[in-house]
UniProtKB/TrEMBL annotation:
PROSITE patterns found in the cross-reference section: WH1
Residues forming coiled coils: 162-307
GO cellular component, one term: postsynaptic density
Protein name stated in the entry: Homer protein homolog 2
Gene that encodes it: HOMER2
Molecular function per GO: G protein-coupled glutamate receptor binding
Biological processes annotated in GO: G protein-coupled glutamate receptor signaling pathway; sensory perception of sound
Length: 343
């Protein structure tokens, strides 16, 4: 019937460094299937794991093996036939516990199978010695008669047992050859693993150099980001200053509107002045013959002219102030436009 899987799990596979005997070397790039197999024909147990087309674990379990938990998710065992130590890294503590329990169970089964095989070997050896001693008795029994029939039957049984023992020896020789071939494959796999380790070391060196280059690039980018942040802060301050200037501009425009409203009164005043002048001229024409009234009116006219001159002076002063305000507003707008262009 061949080998049959009796337990299967997934784990990261490691092997001890053959040079240092301390460091672990990864035997698989990722988690792979690890299985217990039972060989019905040979009555043996093995742990087998394959990564693609590569056999990374082929360990026959013997009674003297021990599986040791070294952490919550890692365990190991030594295989003297493969001359190495295997390590398994699991994704959870429960998986490690199940694997360890199965290892102990298979180890006990392997011990029982070994004891049974040893008993068969001892029994076959005893039967072989008895057959060699009783070989001459068969010749005597041919002449001894019916009394020795039972002894002959026993000798036949011993011969059959000897034949079975020879068959078992041949089977063990085949198993030994299979183990040698497995060891050869494992040796080849170990050599390939060593070559892979060297390649990984070179790749690690390349990755480390690339990492240093990326770190330097990150430092440069961080410096550029700092400069950008400083520029953003400067722009924020300029925007705040522009908003303040725009507020001042709105205030100036409001003040200008007020001044314009006040300037609208000037034509009315001038109209009134012209109207007064016309009245005065009419009064002068009407009162030419009335000297007393003319003198009185002249006095009134002089006072009116004085008020008119005073009003014109005030109007002129007001217009000068208004022109100054307008000039200041134009200068302010030009300064604001220049500041916006520079930003």
């Amino acid at each position: 019937m061949g080998e049959q899987p009796i337990f299967t799990t997934r784990a990261h596979v490691f092997q001890i460094d053959p040079n240092t005997k301390k460091n672990w070397m990864p035997a698989s790039k990722q988690a792979v299937t690890v299985s217990y197999f039972y060989d019905v024909t040979r009555n043996s147990y093995r742990i087998i794991s394959v990564d693609g087309a590569k056999v990374i674990i082929n360990s026959t379990i013997t009674p003297n093996m021990t599986f040791t938990k070294t952490s919550q998710k890692f365990g190991q065992w030594a295989d003297s036939r493969a001359n190495t130590v295997f390590g398994l890294g699991f994704s959870s503590e429960q998986q490690l516990t199940k694997f360890a329990e199965k290892f102990q169970e298979v180890k006990e089964a392997a011990k029982i199978a070994k004891d049974k095989t040893q008993e068969k070997i001892e029994t076959s050896s005893n039967h072989s010695q008895a057959s060699s001693v009783n070989g001459t008795d068969d010749e005597k029994a041919s002449h001894a008669g019916p009394a020795n029939t039972h002894l002959k039957s026993e000798n036949d049984k011993l011969k059959i047992a000897l034949t079975q023992s020879a068959a078992n020896v041949k089977k063990w020789e085949i198993e030994l050859q299979t183990l040698r071939e497995s060891n050869a494959r494992l040796t080849t796999a170990l050599q390939e693993s060593a070559a892979s380790v060297e390649q990984w070391k070179r790749q690690f060196s390349i990755c480390r150099d690339e990492n240093d280059r990326l770190r330097n690039k990150i430092d440069e980018l961080e410096e550029q980001c700092s400069e950008i942040n400083r520029e953003k802060e400067k722009n924020t301050q300029l925007k705040r200053r522009i908003e303040e200037l725009e507020a001042e501009l709105r205030e100036k425009e409001t003040e200008l509107k007020d001044l314009r409203k006040q300037s609208e009164i000037i034509p009315q005043l001038m109209s009134e002045c012209e109207y007064v002048s016309q009245k005065l001229e009419a009064a002068e024409r009407d009162n030419q013959n009335l000297e007393d009234k003319v003198r009185s009116l002249k006095t009134d006219i002089e006072e009116s002219k004085y008020r008119q001159r005073h009003l014109k002076v005030e109007l002129k002063s007001f217009l000068e102030v208004l022109d100054g305000k307008i000039d200041d507003l134009h200068d302010f707008r030009r300064g604001l436009s220049k500041l916006g262009t520079d930003n």
